[in-house]
Amino acid sequence: MEKLQAMATQVRRDIVRMVHGVQSGHPGGSLGCADFLAALYFKHMNIQTDFKMDGIGEDIFFLSNGHISPVFYSVLSRIGYFDKAELASFRKLNTRLQGHPTTHEHLPGVRMASGSLGQGLSVACGAALTKKMNKDASIVYTLHGDGELQEGQNWEAIMYASAKNVDNLIATVDLNGQQIDGSTTDVLNMGNVKAKFEAFDWDVLEITEGNNIDAIIKGMEEAKSRTGKGKPVCVLLHTVMGNGVDFMMHTHAWHGKAPNDEQLAIGLA
Fold it and tell me: What is the pTM of this model?
């Protein structure tokens, strides 16, 4: 647990440095999901660092809310998909680490272009059904923002996944209550998200301490134990936007804002 927590802390350092370096990007949601992605990649998922796009025989992950690419790139580099020195090229012209993940740059670890919100679950359904057809027992994982659920395509995919018994799929929703223009309640209140997924016939569980490594691992193991039983699984992950950098926490102001030199130093400290 100490090693995983140390990795999550290092990932947070990467995030603020990357966004500061180009004065562009999305630190808030990235910081909030650092613990989750560190636990997922370094402990929970069965993956190979010799990256192959087809993902045969291994768990695969799709980042649907692609604007939190800083946390994604950091984790991919530190698990060994590419040299961590490449993180310094974040969002710069003609580099592989664009603001939203792309596939034409052939960056190891990235299997879909994302950032046009709402599309990840549709892709994941296709990948999960392919695994079932190929008798591949591995699991497909996704991560979504709570504000992203305001996109209608999500609900088509949510309906499809349960109707077609896509039970090798675990979709996690980052419930931090913030989006670019304010709180999700103020922008477009989604009400009871758990009840909505259950109404679409998903198996739903919650991780109330979404920035606690131990709680994340226990929650994801529970989610995995519920796969293969006829229903897709949804994990509602309660996180704090900007977690780990005190002045970025609990506010939408740092959804897509870069720290200046002084703020970077404070954040790293």
Answer: 0.97
